[in-house]
Every structure is written in C-alpha cells, then in structure tokens.
Amino acid sequence: MTSSRSSPLTYRFASLHPEWATVHGMPLAARVPGESPERLWTLGICDLSALVRVGVKGPRAAEWLSSHGVQVPQQPNSWASTGGGGLIARLARTEFLIEDGFDGSVAAGLASELKPGSPGVYPVPRQDCALALTGKQVNELLVQTCNVDFSAADATARAVTLTQMVGVSITALRADIDALPCYRIWCDGTSGAYLWETLAGIAAALGGGPVGFKSFHPEHKP
Fold first, then answer.
1. Residue 165 pairs with which residues in a beta bridge?
2. Domains and CATH numbers, the chain
C-alpha cells in the first residue's frame, strides 16, 4: 500500500488488524474486524483524518473564499455544505476550516490557490486528527467527556462548537447522515492518540467501538 501521509491514529488502528485503503495518500481503516451496522447505530468511532482540509484566516478571508466560489457561512461558529460530502466551518469572524468529502475537491483546489503573502488572507496549517462519532449513544459519550450539552442543541442549526473534550481542545459540529446521528470532531494531531484511546474505551463500555470509513462511504473506491 503506497502512501505519502500518515494518520495520528495509524498505529492505534494497526492493533485492530483492519482492512486498509489509501485515501488521498494516507492509509485509513476501511473495515474493522467485528464491526457491524449495529455498532454504527449504537456508538461508532471512525478515523477520517485522511480527508483533505485547508485552513484560511485574515480580514479578507471571507471575500477570498467567495471569489473562489465558496458559499461562506454568514455567522461565526456555523458551518455549511460545499457539496460532495464536504463542508466549510466558520470558526470565528475571520477564520475558516474547509474540508472535502471522500470525492470532493473544494479544499484541495483552495489549497493550490492559497499563496503566502496574499493581502489579508493567510493559510492555517491543519494537521488534524479528525473523527466521526455516531449512533444513539453518542450523546451519552459526549456527556461523559465534554462540558457542553450537545443534546440541547438544534440538530438543524449547523452550529460549530470550540471546546474541550477530556482536556483536549476540539472543534465539533453535528452533521447527521440521513437518520444516523453523527458528530464530527477535529483536534490537533499530537493529541489524537490520547483522545482516541479515551473515546474508544468509553464507546466500548457503551456497547460500541471502532468502525471503518466504508461504514460511512461504501461507494468510495481508493
């Protein structure tokens, strides 16, 4: 398997002996032994670190993104779809996170256009550990690990929350997949292994556990 990048969780997943696939140059667990649709719907935890993302900030960042055809969320701490499973999150008035889905190319295109020294627009390195948490028990996991009551939030409000989870600074949003409850979590890659181990332990106690990315996107062909 040829790869040019590595996930913060590659070694953690290796102990599970998953079926691997290369996604955007990164080995990613496609299937995990023992996973099932029931696990996904109870409490699944998945590594999505391979998805392409780019960070942009600066006083002209919103204008620059709009000029490149991206529909920018009007309010800070909100997000919008960019199509193809991708999203743009407005983390503050002048800072944005853009991430492609498995087959999207918006973030990749922006990264190629973002030049150092562009007036009022600055790149933000995004070496994230990116997770998806799913299922009917996901709010119980969040209650145990985070001081924000996500269950009280409107699932359709497309809010972005910057907070801490088991002492790790995270960005979180809810992005359900049809009827499947799903939260997306990003943290600095250096904290990824600790966050993963903690969440995986709680997930196991709640009847869930790790799942591969094909649980979310079975059509993707690496």
1. 146, 168
2. 10-50+127-213 (3.30.1360.120), 53-124 (3.30.70)
Please give the Cα distance from 130 to 110 (Å, whole number): 19
pTM, two decimal places: 0.94
10 Å Cβ neighbour count for 152? 7
What DSSP letter does each residue of 121-174 carry, written as one string? -EEE---EEEEEEESTTHHHHHHHHBSS-GGGS-TTS-BEEEEEETTEEEEEEE
Q: Which helix (H) or strand (E) holds 118?
A: none
Enter the tokens of residue 195.
């966050």
Distance, in Å, from the CA atom of 163 to the CA atom of 187, rounded to the nearest integer, reads: 10
pLDDT digits (tens, 9 = 90+) for 87-125: 999 999 999 999 999 988 999 999 999 887 788 999 999
Find residue 160's DSSP bridge partners: 173
Give, rounded to a whole angstrom, the gap between the first and last alpha carbons of the chain.
11
Question: pLDDT for 30-62, tens place per residue?
Answer: 999 999 999 999 999 999 999 999 999 999 999
Strand-pairing partners, residue 44, are 134, 209
